[in-house]
Amino acid sequence: MKRTFLLLVALGCSALSCAQKTSAKNYKVDEKSVAATLKFLSADELKGREAGSKGLEQAAQYLEDVFVKNGVKPYFATYKDTLTNFEKPTYNVIGYLEGTDPKLKNEFVVFGAHYDHIGTELKAAVGADSIYNGANDDASGVTTVSELVNYFGKTKNNKRSILFCYFSGEEKGLLGSQSLAVKLKAQNFNLYAMLNFEMVGVAMNRDIMAYLTGYGMSTMGDKINEYAGKKLIGYLDVEMKYQLFRRSDNYSFYNEFQKPSQTICTFDFENFAYYHKVEDDFEHMDTKHMTLFIQEMIPVTDKMVNSKTNDIVMKKK
User: Fold this and answer.
1) What residues contact 211, with CB distance under 8 A and at least 6 apart?
2) What is d(CA 45, CA 28) in angstroms, rounded to the nearest whole number?
3) For the Peptidase M28 domain, which residue ranges apply (predicted)?
4) Contact criterion met (CB below 8 Å) for 141 and 198
């Protein structure tokens, strides 16, 4: 034991810090956990999770419990952040993990995904099905963020502070993220980077695992690949065709802060036929792919929250 301790000292780290440095590589994402969260959020009982609905309230409570069991605190007085721009009561669900570094903890990384979907519509029913379960859109992204909560909540390996955000009202026009971003900007919130996860439930048949919207706008994409040690993500032409950078919750943060705020996605308009259809349900999700994707995201996000200042920045226009 004494010899091991001396060796650690010689290498320049304590047993604790060494364990932290290797925790991201050693951490294993549990496919059963991935499937359980995804299945709950996309269940018929939640009636498509429309903003302001009882189904979305059930989802919010489930996500609060994810924070509680991982020791992630509310950023505001409670986990529920009421939208200021929607007619019915509906909430973002926000968790906060303070950074461990005296200086870097003043910078925030935001990890987000929207947990609302479009509810039910009888006239668009397929057979007896009228529920838009939104498994890929965006229970898959929410599941990814929840697994990041599991990782960082257990390890507390984050020099920067982290805001975990489950947004409501995305399907109504990015309302939840807009409401929150405006509120944070007014509080002089120090955003370092915002990484959003959207529709990651099925794999792409390409030489990259995922694409990043607004790839050339910042160094985020290059850094993610550097952190991964391989070409994990890239750019797709379809992103510009459909203006995807502006169509998810990252855009609200970019608008307010002009800081790197982008979305990772694996839906490329060729690999999933059920966008905004009632067939977007759990049975059409690839949980093995999702588990592998999240496993790749663990060391990437770990390095993102622990890297030096100005590692991820906007590129000059």
Assistant:
1) 204, 233, 234, 235, 236, 239, 264, 265, 266, 268
2) 30
3) 92-291
4) yes
**What pTM does this model have?**
0.92
* Cα(35)–Cα(43) distance, integer angstroms: 12
Note whether 11 and 4 are within 8 A (CB).
Answer: no
Q: Give one DSSP letter per residue of 84-110, joined into a string.
A: SS-SS--EEEEEEE--SSTTGGGSEEE
Distance between CA atoms of residues 258 and 256, nearest Å: 6
Q: What domains are defined for the chain?
A: 27-306 (3.40.630.10)
Q: Which residue has 């020099």 as its token pair? A: 159
Report the alpha-carbon distance of residue 9 to residue 106 in Å, rounded.
Answer: 29
Backbone Cα Rg of the chain: 19
Q: What is the mean pLDDT of each run of 10 residues along the chain (317 residues)?
A: 39 43 84 98 98 98 98 98 96 98 98 98 70 98 98 97 98 98 98 98 98 98 98 95 96 98 98 96 98 98 96 92
Helix, strand, or coil (residue 309)? coil
- Alpha helices (runs of H) in 45-156, residue ranges in sequence order: 54-69, 140-155
